[in-house]
Write a structure and sequence with these properties.
With about 120 residues, this protein is of the alpha/beta class. It has one domain: Oxidized Rhodanese, domain 1, CATH 3.40.250.10. The chain has five helices and five strands; from the N terminus they run αβαβαβαβαβ. A five-stranded parallel sheet has the order 1-5-4-2-3, sandwiched between helices.
Length: about 120
């Protein structure tokens, strides 16, 4: 499964379409974040993050004026997995991060589609 997902990611990233991110469903996202190299970003507000988040996620509110400054703490040599509540904000975050050179996987459907563990 991982091999197939990585092949899909590689094919997408190198097709020359200009975008360096892909959207995957919650099940694929769960498989993807098992990779210890993955940096997991929750793009929701701090209060939403406190209400429950995916284990290992770091909160970087896409609506914060500090979002891009916060993203400087990420390692560009490692992929980024990003999610939000429903998928709208994470797509904005993925676009911003990919424009800065990050390889990004975005969870379409957001945390409301997540069936895995939640830390509260």
């Amino acid at each position: 499964m991982k091999t197939i997902l990585y092949a899909m990611i590689a094919a997408f990233l190198y097709t020359g379409c200009g975008s360096r991110y892909i959207s995957v469903d919650a099940k694929q996202f769960a498989e993807t974040i098992k990779d210890p190299r993955m940096q997991i970003i929750d793009a929701r507000t701090p209060n939403e993050f406190k209400d429950g988040h995916i284990p290992g996620a770091v909160n970087m509110d896409i609506n914060s004026k500090d979002f891009m400054r916060q993203s400087e703490s990420l390692d560009k040599t490692r992929p980024v997995a990003v999610y939000c509540r429903s998928g709208r904000r994470s797509k904005v975050a993925a676009e911003k991060l990919s424009s800065k050179g990050f390889d990004v996987i975005e969870m379409d459907g957001g945390i409301i589609s997540w069936e895995g563990e939640i830390i509260r």
